[in-house]
Task: inverse folding
């Protein structure tokens, strides 16, 4: 698709930690808007927080975005027409813009100490006034500034906020206005020489020709400060779209106490990227045409519209994500789920670190059997318990299972089955023949026949079809696996022993 240079959006994370789900939703909405409009999606790294920024976090966020299926047209790794794409490489330019603002009398030096500023702030709060800077250094004359600098005082640089209401248009919220009195003269470059976020982000967005700034609504209070910088620098103001906050089920801001909150968390849980993308798109965006919820990537791009983004907070619903993930697991190519699934079984110690061809073939059949029953792929090891963890006493301790053995029929069925399951390996055909003989001998059928046998073999009265289950058990018992898979014969004998000791 040809790029429309009139539409340019950016995702600008700080490499100070794992990529939070709220941030990646912002990245997704920017990406969808760019792809829907045929525009450019730009990745910029905001790493001026030197103490907290780490290269490993930058590497991880690039991997997480790629895993989710987001690509970028310009960025630190691919370059582009408006470099650099890391803020730490632009310090000289930020200072140059500050010098220009000073020269044009749109900014001034401020010598106020942190203690003075805090004292003024507390006084304003006590008097129920906005705790904004008083402007006491605004009127310092050039001679005094020169004298104090020569004496070794290191001043900050403050912007002279225009003395009129600061207005901007928000695609999600409409026209927004802030009185200039609540903004005050903000610091744009600290006395240490380190520029402030609300200053550098304007320069970056202007340099990169950003047309639309799409970000979380926690930035709404920053926006008038940034618009003031745009105005004083004489730069065009972009369109804004502030996305709603993501809340946990308790209607509080989504945080670690709610469980998984980062892309890395969901990757580790075995959530598919297609499912996570689909789900995140529905957090704060309402598609046209009813309550449809399944949207593959191509259809998301086609349907997405910023005008249908809601300002209301979005509640993160884990059950809905699980439902979507279950759908995408079932729809995915079996090879993909097998490959991912084997990794989870290895992590759980059920498969060896190195897999030979026979183990791979068996594990693929195991995953094919279990995958339709899981919400996330990290649930596979637990589901595989029916193969690896045969515990007759634990099975009999379950009231529902115990009912099948309340009378004599259940035990008689297992005894008759155990006599006929002495052949190893037992084929599905031999299993069927054995069950027909048990049916005749014990005089039972239906659940009275199958439930006791199923409980004896896998610890539950419900589970996969015997035609697929029996070969898996028998083939698995012949393999050298970290956890021994008991054969049908071993299971039947162990269960009878447990029944006898009740």
Result:
């Amino acid at each position: 698709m040809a790029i429309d240079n009139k539409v340019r959006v950016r995702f600008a994370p700080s490499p100070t930690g794992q990529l939070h789900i709220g941030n990646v939703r912002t990245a997704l909405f920017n990406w969808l808007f760019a792809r829907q409009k045929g525009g450019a999606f730009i990745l910029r790294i905001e790493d001026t927080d030197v103490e907290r920024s780490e290269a490993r976090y930058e590497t991880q966020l690039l991997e997480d975005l790629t895993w989710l299926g987001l690509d970028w047209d310009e960025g630190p790794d691919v370059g582009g027409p408006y470099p650099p794409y890391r803020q730490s490489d632009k310090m000289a330019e930020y200072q140059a813009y500050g010098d220009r603002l000073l020269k044009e009398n749109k900014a001034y030096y401020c010598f106020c100490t942190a203690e003075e500023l805090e004292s003024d702030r507390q006084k304003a709060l006590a008097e129920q006034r906005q705790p904004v800077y008083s402007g006491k250094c605004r009127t310092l004359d050039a001679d005094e500034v020169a004298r104090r600098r020569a004496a070794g005082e290191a001043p900050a640089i403050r912007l002279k906020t225009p003395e009129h209401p600061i207005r901007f248009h928000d695609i999600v919220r409409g026209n927004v206005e802030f009185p200039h009195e609540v903004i005050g003269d903000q610091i744009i470059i600290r006395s240490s020489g380190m520029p402030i976020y609300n200053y550098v982000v304007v320069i970056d967005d202007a340099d990169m020709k950003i047309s639309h700034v799409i970000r979380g609504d926690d930035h709404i209070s920053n926006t008038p400060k940034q618009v003031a910088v745009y105005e004083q620098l004489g730069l065009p103001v972009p369109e804004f779209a502030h996305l709603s906050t993501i809340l946990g089920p308790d209607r509080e801001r989504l945080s670690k106490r709610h469980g998984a909150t980062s892309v890395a968390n969901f990757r580790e849980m075995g959530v598919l990227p297609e499912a996570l993308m689909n789900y995140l798109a529905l957090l704060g965006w309402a598609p046209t045409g009813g309550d449809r919820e399944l949207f593959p990537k191509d259809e998301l791009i086609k349907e997405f519209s910023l005008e249908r983004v809601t300002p209301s907070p979005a509640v993160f619903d884990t059950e809905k994500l699980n439902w979507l993930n279950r759908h995408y697991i079932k729809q995915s190519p079996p090879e993909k789920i097998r490959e991912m699934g084997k990794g989870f079984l290895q992590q759980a110690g059920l498969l060896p670190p190195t897999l030979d061809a026979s183990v791979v073939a068996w594990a693929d059949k195991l995953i094919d059997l279990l995958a339709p029953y899981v919400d996330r792929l990290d649930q596979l090891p637990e589901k595989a318990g029916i193969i690896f963890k045969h515990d007759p006493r634990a099975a009999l301790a379950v009231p529902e299972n115990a009912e099948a053995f309340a009378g004599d029929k259940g035990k008689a069925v297992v005894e008759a089955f155990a006599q006929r399951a002495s052949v190893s390996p037992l084929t599905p055909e031999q299993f069927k023949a054995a069950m027909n003989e048990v049916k005749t001998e014990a005089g039972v059928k239906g659940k009275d026949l199958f439930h006791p046998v199923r409980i004896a073999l896998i610890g539950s009265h419900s589970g996969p079809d015997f035609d697929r289950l029996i070969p898996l058990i028998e083939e698995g018992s012949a393999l050298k696996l970290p956890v021994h898979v008991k054969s049908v014969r071993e299971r039947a004998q162990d269960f009878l022993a447990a029944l006898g000791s009740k």
User: Anything to note?
Assistant: The chain has a mean pLDDT of 93. The two ends are 71 Å apart (CA to CA). The chain has 22 helices and eleven strands. The longest strand covers residues 166-170.
